[in-house]
Amino acid sequence: MRPEQALGRNLTTSMPGLFPPGKNRSNIDSKRFALRILDIAYALPSKRVTNQDVTDEIIRRSRKHLSQKDLKILEGKVRKFFRLSGTKIRYHRKKGEKAFEFAVSAGREVLRKADVKPGDVDLLIYSGVGRGWITPATASLFQSELGLRRATSFDVLDACASWIRSLSIAKTFLDGAVYKLVMLLNCEFCFKEYCEANLEISSIAELECVFSGFTIGEAATATLLSGNGSSGDFHFSFRTWGDKHDLCKIVLPNEASFSTRMSTPLKPMSFYTLPAELLSFTAEKLVEHFKETRILANQKYDLVVGHAVSKSLTLSVAKLMGLDRESVFETHPRFGNTVSASLPLALAVAEEEGRLRRGMRVLLVMGSAGVSTGLGSFVY
Question: What are the DSSP E strand ranges found in the chain?
Fold first, then answer.
């Protein structure tokens, strides 16, 4: 069954588990370290949202602010931006669905598929933007809900790069045999919280700064990692241009106390971006970063997975990197921008559809607010 046909169901990818039947963590050879992906599971909310649905809602909410002529112009621009981004479908919560339920479901499913008991997980890293509070760590909620009684837990927050950052952190722990089983979990349910209010447009000039939020899809993913792999399989590289931090933000009410900007304050808890500058700058730096990182640039890849912010951008960056277009696995048209869930979601779907198999060399490409670029290479 394809993802588009499984509304509200947990969609998982099954990979060979660490533990053979009847075995448990005590049987692991303690001399075998390094990162290996055991399983990835994901869950989607049940409301399938099309571009037409979003466009109709924008016009309905903006009607009280704009003339009929301006509404026509607004509708034309929205449709044009959707064509440029390649967005078609995304999934949002319907009434009564709670974000945390999907992450718990994905977490339980990844444990089941890998035949791992909750008590065997050493570390839980919650990686992502979606959250219900600033403190304590959101990981604490899921450590409790999933019954990971032996695990310690913490959050990693680096916008859309949160998951690939967490993957690199997990590698460090597993390489050093500090932990043997690590779960990465995210719950990227951000549309209602940070984007929905922006559907009400009072001026056509607002559209560019809020449009990216209209491509946001919601998803939860859980990734289970072991220290039962090859130390040479994974390579990561990250760079950050902090002077570009204002290009994409969700600010708190006290933003002014932490900002050097002299312009009009941003609306708190609202997704804001300057997409033209953000995307062009990030794409340029991603290409430079890749070409200058010889250990990655000199590899041949069976599968390339990029952050699903825009179909056209992913393909353009891959071409400039000199990568084979046929190796690129793109998920934006059918899921939208699922924030930090985009990379694990794509890996899971690729495996589900036969595009990803064990022994393949994979390249992860991430451009994130910050601005940060992240690259990861591994044998699956």
Answer: 10-13, 36-43, 47-50, 89-92, 123-127, 152-156, 181-188, 219-226, 235-240, 248-250, 271-273, 303-306, 361-368, 372-379
In three-state secondary structure terms, 249 is: strand
112-169: pLDDT as tens digits: 999 999 999 999 999 999 999 999 999 999 999 999 999 999 999 999 999 999 999 9
**What would the DSSP string read from start to end of 288-355?**
HHHHH-HHHHT---SEEEE-TT-HHHHHHHHHHHT--GGGB---HHHH-B-GGGHHHHHHHHHHHTTS
pLDDT in tens, 184-235: 999 999 999 999 999 999 999 999 999 999 999 999 999 999 987 766 689 9
- Rounded distance between C-alpha atoms, residue 184 and residue 179, angstroms: 13
Domains and CATH numbers, the chain: 235-379 (3.40.47.10)
Residue 144 CB burial class (10 angstroms; 0-12, 13-18, ≥19): exposed
